[in-house]
Amino acid sequence: METAVLSGPVAAQFAAEGFAVLPDFYAPADVSALLHAVESSAGSGPNFRRSQEVFAIRELLKEIPSLWPLLETPALRELLAGLFPAGCQLVKAIYFDKPAGSNWLVAWHQDLMINVDQRADLPGFGPWTSKAEGVSVQPPVAVLENVATLRIHLDDCDATNGALKVVPGSHRHGVVPAAAIAGFTPDATVCAVPAGGMMLMKPLLLHASNRSTSNRPRRVMHLEFASAELPDGLAWREGRLL
C-alpha cells in the first residue's frame, strides 16, 4: 500500500534492499521534545543502562509513556499503514545514546531474537535466552519477515559517529550462518541519516556499527513493529496494539 510517506521509490527500495532513509520525518521541534522527554526522565531501574560508553533504555515506552504522543504523528500513522495495511503492534522500543568518543562498536549481525512473555515448547522457536529483563527467542523466519524496524535519529549521523553499515539485499537470504557473513560485507554501505530522519530496516538485514571517531553524539529511538500474531501460548512481551 503506497502512501505519501511510503512512496513508490521508497517502498521499492525497502523491499529490494531491506532499508530506506526518510529524511526530515520529525521536525526540529519534535526532536527537541523527544530529547527533553528522555533527558527529563529520572528512571534508574534495570531497564536503564548508563556507562561512560553508552546510555540505553529498554522497554522505552513503558519507562517513559509520555514519548508515545510525541512519536505518533500523522506521518508515523501513515507510514505504518503503508507498511502494515492490515494493522500492526509495537513489539519493542529501545533508546540508544552513543556518546561522543565512545569506543562501542557492533559487529555484523542480523536481529534474530524477539522479546516474548514466557518460554514455550513450540516448533520452529529457538534458541531461547532468559535474562533479567525477560525471555527472548529466535522465531521462524516468517515471523521476522513481518517485522519492520524504525530507527528515529535525534542527531545527524554519519560514518564518524556510528552510523549503521548495512549490506543491501542481505535480508533476502534468510538467516545467514556466522561463517558466511564475511562474504557479504564487501557490498556494505553506510546509512547517513540527518537529525529528525527515519531509517527503515528489516530485521534480517545484515548490519553493523563502527566506533565513533567524532565528538558528536548519536541518539536513536529504535522501534520494532509487527503484523504477525504469535502462536497460542506465546505473546510479545512489549506488545502494544495500535
From TrEMBL:
Residue stretches spanning the membrane: none
Gene3D superfamilies given in the database record: q2cbj1_9rhob like domain (2.60.120.620)
Record keywords, A-Z: Dioxygenase, Oxidoreductase
Cofactor: Fe(2+)
GO molecular function, one term: dioxygenase activity
UniProt feature coiled coil, ranges: none
Protein name: Phytanoyl-CoA dioxygenase family protein
Lineage, highest ranks first: Bacteria, Pseudomonadati, Bacteroidota, Cytophagia, Cytophagales
